[in-house]
Input
Amino acid sequence: MKTLNLYVTKSFIVSFFMSIAILTFGMMGGRLIKIFEMISNGLPISAVLKFMLFISPLVMATSIPFAVLVSIMLVFGRLSADSEITAMRACGISILQILSPIMLIVLLLTCFCLYLRMDIVPRTTWMATAFIKMVVVDQPSTILEPGRTVEYEEFRIYVDSKENENLRNVQVFLMGDRDESVKNDITAARGKIIANKKKQVLTVILYDATIVDFEKNKPKNRTFSKEFSFSIDYGKKFNSLRVSKEVDDLSFREIFGRAAMNKRTGKDNTRVEVELNQRIALALAPIAFMLLGMPLAIRTSRRETSVGLFLSVILAGVYQSLVMICGALSGYPQYHPQILLWIPNIVYQICGTYFILKIARR
Output
């Protein structure tokens, strides 16, 4: 029995680490593209690596439940397809005995996810937000990102390419004060940016600029300027960011402190309760995925091995979507979203327990 448990546990651990490596890389993939763009815009690699370090706990907390489900489907799917589970049961070994070491590992992973969701992720997310602010203040040229329209106060700025302080193919829209109508359309084949870090002001200089004046969104006058400049007070924008944390950025203790403060002042606590319950519900996902994934892996593998992977993606996607949808209802306390959040967990765990017991009785 000890040898059998080691065999199943080893298979699960190997599959788990392979799955979490692939899933983490996949979840980081979209961010890596953004990161490479930031590096090309002059952001130091050390700053990029530090930002990745800040967001890694969130990626880890999200990928662990998915990795558990994929590993369960792969391991038990293969054991069933090779008739190893049938052979084990013929020797008098029950499904629960086979599953027991995996249950212990998943329980430890759930506790780790709970710790990440409750304490580490809020802290690192808050640190990432503060770090972005610090980077922008220290590297203001990163505000103008090539290939993307940057909106700042009344300016809409598009830069086709940028090399250090030199700009190419710049278009600037100066918008109206009271509406979104265009007042001026300024274009230039080349330009330059000058940063005053002390005053936290970014000056954009355009050479041989064409300025088109608009009236009621229709071009009126066209003028040319050998040198046209305007300033962006980026320090005003980033220094005006609220210092107080949002509920998403609060640690476990801070959430309870916020709830107690809301109770004393008579404020609605729904948002805080939803955030707390959502974190717990997402942290318990490994248990739900294990209970439902194992019996499905045994059943589907008898027909087609690839079905298990397809089902794992569907199950994880449905679970995550339902929890996030219920969490988005925090602005509608009449629907009791803090209770609705538990429906996916309850359904997955009850269904999984039922199927496991049904297989165990055979």
